Amino acid sequence: MRLGRVASPDGVAFVSVEGDGDATVVREIAEHPFGTPTFTGRSWPLADVRLLAPILASKVICIGKNYAAHAEEMGGPAPADPVIFMKPNTSIVGPNAPIILPPSSSQVDYEGELAIVIGRPCKDVPAAKAHEVILGYTVANDVTARDQQRHDGQWTRSKGYDTFCPLGPWIETSLDPSDLEIVTELDGQIRQRSRTSLLLHDIPKLIEWVTTVMTLLPGDVILTGTPEGIGPMQAGQNLSVTIEGIGTLTNPVAAKR
Ligand code: MG
């Protein structure tokens, strides 16, 4: 199932996204998409609604340097254990929402990433049971003010600006994430192309590692790390991240006004 969240003529709702191309419709889910969703009976053509970020997260956990080739381009070997950091949930935006470049940064980079969406409250989840706590997977862009990341020595400012966590277009709940192609395009030019099979720490390990530290709540998101090929975006450009089996997340880049 593809789970999304939309602004419809009747308000904001979680939906299932069904069909393809011009025939795609969204069916309204009653209340929330966790567990077994129930439907209200209302539906709209996808063209008549606006896709929002597909989930409301209490927190966004990110994994750093989880592809060897990206660790190398950042100037060092990948660490033995997963590196985790966080983005505030106020950094989340949906498909087609602009990424706003802060005037205080001279280099804002894209980082295309596979994102895990958590389906139920959990703590201390062994890797073998990680699948039980996952709602599904979506596409993310871990937008980063690279100059500030280098300057600050820790990453909260550089990763935390409003609009620095595009998510979407929806959550795919029936997906084997172990070997999916991930492609990032800037104005239609391919800048990143890799496969999730190259993740240094796989998804079950990441769930175990993160839940050793903190309780995860339904809707929480884990960004699994970016492959090589990161680079800057300029105002007026369009950034798209496509993950096989999920879809394409596209966001325009804009200067702050
Ligand atoms: Mg990242």
TrEMBL record:
Keywords: Hydrolase, Metal-binding
GO biological process terms held by the UniProt record: carboxylic acid metabolic process
Keyword RNA-binding included in the entry's annotation: no
rRNA-binding is among the record's keywords: no
Coiled-coil features, chain-numbered ranges: none
Molecular-function annotations in GO: acetylpyruvate hydrolase activity; isomerase activity; metal ion binding
A Pfam cross-reference name: Rv2993c-like_N
UniProt-listed SUPFAM superfamilies: FAH
Domain of life of the native organism: Bacteria
InterPro entries: Fumarylacetoacetase-like_C, Fumarylacetoacetase_C_sf, Rv2993c-like_N
Segments forming domain Rv2993c-like N-terminal: 1-54
Domain Fumarylacetoacetase-like C-terminal residues, every copy: 59-253
Name of the featured protein: Fumarylacetoacetate hydrolase family protein
Species, as recorded: Nocardia uniformis
